[in-house]
Amino acid sequence: MKSWADVINGSAEFDAYLSRSKSKDGAGMVTSDSRGTDFMHKYNLSLDSSLFPLLKLSAGSTFLQDINTMHDMGTSSRSKSTTLSPYLDLMLNNSLYQAALGYSRNQNWQSGTQELVPSTVNDEYHASFGWRPVGLPDLSVRLSHANTFDVDRVTQDMTTNMATLGSQYTYKALKLGYQFTGTETMDNLHGTDNTSLLNNGSVGYSDQFFNRRVSVYAHYNLNHLTSTTKAGNGGFVDTEAINYDTWLYSHNFDQSQSTGDTELKSDDLKSVGINLLPPDPLAVWGVGLGFSNPTEINKLKVFVSVSGSNLTSSYLLQQMKSYFTWQIWLKDKDTDNWRMSNVTVTATPEFNQSQQWFTLDLNAPVKTKYIKVVVNWPIMNVDPKWNGVQIKVTDLQAFLSQPAAQVQGTSSRFSQTFNTDVRTKITDSLYHNLNLSLSNTTGGELAYVLDNNLTYDHRLNSMFTVGASAGREDLLSGGLHSSAYLYSASLKATPLPGLNNALVYSGRIDQAVNGTSESNSIFLTNTAQPYKGVAFNLSGGYSLSTDARGQKSENLSFVSGASIAPRQDLNFTMSYNRSLTSASGGTPGLGASAAITGASQSGQMGATYRPFPNLYLFASLGIQQAESKKTQYIQNYGGTWSPFPDGALQFNIAYNESANSTNNEKNSSLTPSISWKVAPKAMLSLSYSLLRTDSLVASTEASYLSTVLRLSF
User: Fold this and answer.
1) Per-residue pLDDT averaged across 184-189, rounded?
2) pLDDT digits (tens, 9 = 90+) for 534-546
3) How distant, in Å, are the alpha carbons of 266, 345, 385, 386, 555 from that of 326?
């Protein structure tokens, strides 16, 4: 039998964080002079024991308290946040069936000088059962009962009961699925009760025929939602939009373009996640939904998963909502580009700490087919408290929130989607692809997308490969039909090992009710690697497009670069880009414009050097020029040094400096740190950061001292 030491685990953590920051304007006047402290202590205790061969008990609790103070030019603030999270789970498991019972609680107390937040509690009881017989349909059942309230039951008192039942069956190429979800939400403060019953059925088929020359995939999905609302004295009811079929993700400097969007299905997003803190401080992220038909919504929920070595403070979670700048973007149906909407997120988004989601309330309902949330995060690039933190988006949901009195009674919604993809190998080089997507929703019209194209890819000899494609796309949405013809041709050559050339021509003609638009482009790409560690690239292209208003746009671009590594520890890179654009024409009264031309170019050269495994140095110089704008010079250099990378005591020092000719801006940071493994289960870390920013308009000098002690048993 295992001893208690084998089944009980625990940890304790103590963080002390001191900060000092002083800012001045361009005239040298002090605009901010702040001093802050943040102390956090966290304790975790867990018990995992096998009571019987198939029965496991898991229990534990986490206690966390964060105390924060801030003083700034005569003003002071103090906040304290305490969280207690106990849990208990009993699980029975074998190869045929699984059963579980559990309870969890999350209680949070907050107090401070700025606002009084009542203690909030989230209680949840849950039970589940699963059955997985071989060769028969499986079965899964889950029941839950949750209460969310403040201790005085003044601001919120919600009860949610949920039951889900699901089954899947696979027979050869056929896959059948069914899921029922029943949810009852009671607003006990306002006497409002909402019950929703969602039935979902799906049929999938995937197979290959004729010696694998024909591949067929088909999937049909059916949803039926019944909602019953009993209105009391006020309260709101949130109705989820269930007919979305696309996840859109972009990580662009220019969010108006769709070129960086990547389609992610729901399961992909939940498993991969999108990090809100990208490595590039200028980048922004966007995540959104595409609906089968224009759908009215006024609320979004962004679900996140938070991790990172420095995310031991609940203070960070509370500050996340004010650090982010949220924007709502919609896709223009005429140009297929994104535009920032006049609809905005009201006030500061609410952050649910226990279940980790942001609630974004829109100041007005919007009816759209595509919606995207774009977020900027400028402050987190400065404060080293955010080093190592990852905040990943795992889900996005859209709702229409309405007063309960408006939706009182019973309503029913029905939606269905059908997707099929047929790929035929006509010859070894010629393929035909047919893709059809159909959708229909109660109150909406039939929508479909039909893609039909031929693709040719043939290797002539060891040097040349030719390719071509031609296709048609038909789209029906909102009762309006549009079509597009797509075509391309390519020639690829490999005259010598390490030398690759590609000439690609592509075009598109769109026909819609508002007119016809056309775009054509040709691009030549050349890459060469004559020696090991030496690589060059040289590319250029021309594009011409005419939109439905008759406006013509031309672009001529040139890209070149080189990478040279004379030694394994030394690397040089160089790049140069130039672009020429022009726009003219247009139908009078419909956006006609005079001739507009523009030119821009940029270049960069850099070097990295690692003379020893524990020393890394880098430097780069860049230049950017654009028409009617001042030439911009950018410098970056720095390095890291770890004199004792191994052993119980580790020391590291990092220095970075950047200069930008715009406003004569200069940024520098110096960060030494020490980690000491005091014992096998005890770690002490100490770090200090000195940051300085100077420009013609403002200057800031900040310092941060952090001490962390982690113990475990």
Assistant:
1) 91
2) 999 999 999 999 9
3) 22, 7, 22, 19, 32
> Residue for token digits 């107390």?
109
Residue pLDDT, tens place only, 488-506: 999 999 999 899 999 999 9
Quote the tokens at residue 403: 């007063």
* Residues 18 and 36 sit within 8 Å (Cβ to Cβ): yes
DSSP label at residue 379: G
User: Residue 524's pLDDT is what?
Assistant: 97
Reference 338, options 469, 215, 250, 436; nearest CA is 250
The pLDDT assigned to 381 comes to 45
This prediction has a pTM of 0.77
Grade residue 311 by pLDDT with cuts at 50, 70 and 90.
very low
Helices (H) and strands (E) in the chain, counts: 3, 38
Dist CA 312 CA 40 (whole Å): 8
Give me the amino acid identity at 454: L
Contact 75, 65 (CB under 8 A): no
8-state DSSP, 479: T
Kindly state the tokens that stand for 522.
Answer: 């040709």
Q: How many Å apart are CA 506 and CA 446, to the nearest integer? A: 31
Q: What is the pLDDT of residues 590-647, one digit of tens each?
A: 444 456 678 889 999 999 999 988 899 999 999 999 887 888 999 999 999 988 777 8
For 576, the 3-state DSSP assignment is strand
Backbone angles phi, psi at 313, to 5 degrees: -100, 125
As given in the structure block, the two tokens for residue 380 are 């987190």
User: What gap in Å lies between CA 242 and CA 197, rounded to an integer?
Assistant: 13
